[in-house]
Amino acid sequence: MAKLLVGHLSDIDIKGSRTIRVQDTEIAVFRLSDGSVRAVENRCPHKNGRLSEGMVCGDAIHCPLHDWKIDLKSGRVHEPDDGCVTTYVTEVEPESGSIYVTI
Ligand code: FES
Fold it and tell me: Where does the record place the Rieske domain (predicted)?
């Protein structure tokens, strides 16, 4: 496991995202409206939509392709759909605002 510096809070607007690539995996890092930061694999379990291009709503991301809703904390798809995405532990350094993702 590695803890990677992926950016700074000021790099991501509230309800916005940025992506990072680690080897073959693209990870989407989101900033929720409560200011917290979440990271998931940037691939919808339905048909691989890019979640980073979806809309953040509360704790969920709405996939841009067919509007599946995915909980950004657990990675679980909201019912009635089914599936899950890989989530990653995130950490924000309070003093600097640096964002770390554990891969
Ligand atoms: S690809 Fe995400 S809902 Fe279809």
Answer: 4-99
Please report the atom of ligand 1 found closest to the CA of residue 51: 2
Residue-wise pLDDT tens digits, 33-71: 998 999 999 999 999 999 999 999 999 999 999 999 999
Please identify which residue in the block is written with the tokens 């657990």. 74
Burial class (CB in 10 A: 0-12, 13-18, 19+), 1: exposed
* Domain map (residue ranges) of the chain: 3-102
Q: Which of 66, 77, 78 to mutate to test the pocket of ligand 1 (most atoms within 8 A of CB)?
A: 66
pTM of the complete model: 0.95
3-102 has which CATH code? 2.102.10.10
Distance (Å, whole) CA 30 – CA 58: 11
Pocket of ligand 1 (CB under 6 A): 44, 46-47, 49, 63, 65-66, 68
